[in-house]
Amino acid sequence: MNVTPGLFSRTNTPLLFFLFLAIALGGTLSIAPSAAADEAGDAKPLLIQGGRILTMAGVDFERGDLFIRKGRVAAVAPRLRARRGVQVIDASGKTVVPGFIDACSALLREPGGRSGSRATCSVIDAINTFSLQQKRGLEAALARGVTTVAVFPQASSGVGGYAAALRLIPDAAPRELVVEEKLALHAAVGLGSYGRPFHRLGEIENLRGALRGAKEYEEALENYTEELEEYEKKLKERAEKDDTEDQDKETDTKKNGNGKRAGRTKSRDNNNNDKKAESATKNDAAKDKDKDELKKPKKPRHDPAKERLLEALDGEIPLFVEVHRAADVINLLDIVEAYPVKLVLIGCTEGFLVTSELAGAGVKVVAGPAFRETELERNEFRNHVPWFAAALAKAEIPFALASSGRLAGETRHLTLNAAQTVAHGLTERQALEAITIEAARLLGLDERLGSLEKGKDADLVIFDGDPLSSAAKVEMVIIQGRIVYQPGA
Amino acid sequence: MKRTIKLRIFSFGTAFFMLLCCLATAESGPDGSRKSPTPVALKAAKVWTGTGQVHDDALVLLRGRQIAAVGKDIVLPAGCEVIDLGSAQIAPGLIDPFTALGAVGQNIEIIDPIHPEATAEDVFDRFHRDFERALAAGITSVVITPSLDNLVGGTAVAVKTAGTCACSRCRVLRRGGPLLLTLSEAAQKRNRAPTSRIGAIDLFKQTLARARTPAVHGETPSPRIEALVRGELDAYFYASWRYNLDTVIGLRKEYGLKLTLVGLSDAWEMIDELAAAGMPLILGPFNALTAERELCVPGRAQAAGLEIAFTSGAPGFKPEGLRSSAALAVRYGLERDAALQAMTLHAAKMAGIVERVGSLSPGKDADMVVFSGDPLDLSSKVLRVYVNGTPVYAGACCGGCCAESEVCP
């Protein structure tokens, strides 16, 4: 790949004239803003020239230029001019695509059993970028065009904690990779039930119970707030009354009953406790006794697990549930009807059997992996069909294609996964969208990632040919405007 | 020994019965392709011959069950029907040289560790649905082996995954070979010798030595092991790891054995030695979790001049794994053409069926796969499969949810 310094200077008059002419003619020539010398960004502005650009935002360019400044896409157009200080990357004959997103990856997560994770966990705590193996995995994935991964805690049943979205930047500390730390709340159904037929029912009930518990917790909190308000109101009243009484005692000792009357009128506002208030004014001794009776409401014990589920119930974060069997999916949809959350299903191996239900419930799916060879896998995946993605597409269910999130090595083959779905009913466009913009949408990151549009993060990959071909080679990977991978460089 | 003889009788009996059955079928003749006088030619955007040639916009002319000619400018006979396949590409029927299709659970014999006279052809169920699935993955021929529970497991059988009739003659490509050998842990049992690696190697060596000089030991020799040590019978040697390979390479040299190595997962350390020994390799199945250095082996082996083939691991793994293994190898440096040859011609050579299948050459069986695109891209789909010149698979319509552009049967 040729990287040449800026070709055209600011003072190139004939060029400027041509530029003006083109604009006047309503042509397609736009200007890449020149890189100001005092630009703050430490990464040099980049101009990727002459490549076939698949923006994944509706418009593709058979031959287009893409300008990157301050880590973001600044312009995409058929033709842009480079000014001084802009690094030009010649991509003629190559294909430029947004960096691929693996919507369910195990990359960078410490490998471990499927049991430990709880609702209060965050997968970010299990991210390790320092182990040699993880480093290699990251580079291998990057070398195949994957720039972002969503990593989920490895819950086998019940709620498993926060998932995170990470950028695959080599040699960076875990926190530098974070795109979104609280991407979603993760849960799983059915995975713990292999060989234990009665467990499955328990798992569904676990999840339902967790949501019910969170709801009750919320109600208890609301009750507490109400009671507290009431209590404070009463306290205030009492204080005011005491004040008046004291004043009465001080100023109106001769006029008996005046204070009493005042107390009574005031207490009328308070429906529940007017009798008490009345009696309270009768004599001081009774008043002290009443003060003891007016108890401060007890605050429900703080429960961080339920707090997190409440975030999902309030729609602040989506709930991603790994589920594979159709029967579990139906149960899950019932739960969601009772406790509305933004539900996204992971895996969903038998989703093709219940497409109408999924579409009816408006659920999204992180589907895959397509690249699943073993026949003798566990019950959960037994009914895997190669056309699972085509079935979802036909039912117009939004979906992303991802690896299984079980082993880190899968992420590097994301494009092969996508290619395989093309052989079984998806169009090439749909398959590419499922690992770029659709994946970003599902993860709620589409404002920043997933397509090559002005203002989005400049995460992109330059391929030497068709990205879904087996022999496709990645020539360059750029993350946030920085070249992070270049074979042979 | 008694058991062996019984088995052999059974084998002859079965073969005789099958032959009778086949003759009967041939005479009654439901076989349409042989009687049909109309010659057929297929036209496709690309024809991969399997011998290293790729023709653009070429024709494949069939004569009955066989291929008559392949090329761009071949002369078509009068009245020839031309089937235009548009942008599709034709490749030879894929071959999986190491499977247990239709024989899972039936091919296990664990009493006698040396079992040369057993044959897999007696136990495979040719009506098993595994064959249909293999066909859908573009696999037209497979080798079915005995299980890996014995040091000498018996002979494998090479069969087609479909035939123009149900008789075994139309299905069986090669009886009695290759012989399956192994020293792996699977062949070491707790309740019979060998129980260890050292015992396995010793027994293995003794078996070969006795076959070379049976008179000295005063034993009834096994004809198959005798054939093996005379270099007349080829064999598959299964080794998951390289640690027994020095022994094997030594024995191969000593006896002049014809060996194909199967299953070697860590061949990256051995490529030069294997190339020097000229031992072909059957690799795979590769999947998304296979280590990258293992995925680099096919490309490096090919560069070193080694012949390679792939296995899908079917039926334990999906038969589609044959093509995805090759695609992964392409991803890690194997040339497309070499990858296609590995799945066709080289596999046929290792299975010993190259006279009949493995390439689109005049005179060979017309076993072909029609792909929607490049056979090595996983985005290409198997549209049609021909066996003996007859279409036997015409695409599954993914449960009725295929895109409208797709051709549905």
Quick tags:
heterodimer, A: 489 residues, alpha/beta, 9-stranded mixed β-sheet, 8-stranded mixed β-sheet, disordered N terminus, B: 409 residues, Urease, subunit C, domain 1, TIM Barrel, 2 domains, 6-stranded mixed β-sheet, 18 strands, 31% helix, globular, disordered C terminus
If you had to describe this structure to a student in words, what would you say it looks like?
The complex is a heterodimer of chains A (489) and B (409). With 489 residues, chain A is of the alpha/beta class. Chain A has helices at 13-24, 132-142, 199-251, 258-267, 274-282, 284-293, 304-313, 326-338, 355-361, 388-394, 414-423, 428-434, 437-442, and strands at 3-4, 29-31, 46-54, 60-69, 72-77, 79-81, 87-90, 95-98, 100-105, 146-151, 158-167, 178-188, 319-323, 343-347, 364-367, 399-401, 460-463, 474-479, 482-485. In chain A, the strands form three sheets. In chain A, strands 1, 3, 4, 5, 7, 8, 17, 18 and 19 form a nine-stranded mixed beta sheet that branches. Chain A has an eight-stranded mixed beta sheet with strand order 9-10-11-12-13-14-15-16. The relative contact order of chain A is 0.15. Chain B has 409 residues and is of the alpha/beta class. In chain B, the strands form three sheets. In chain B, strands 1, 2, 3, 4, 5, 16, 17 and 18 form an eight-stranded mixed beta sheet that branches. In chain B, α5 (197-212) packs across α7 and α13 (336-343) runs parallel beside α14. The longest helix of chain B is centred in the first third of the chain and has 27 residues, at 2-28. The radius of gyration of chain B is 22 Å and the shape is globular. Mean pLDDT of chain B is 86; it is low at 1-11, 13-34 and 398-409. Chains A and B meet through α10 and α11 of A and α12 of B.
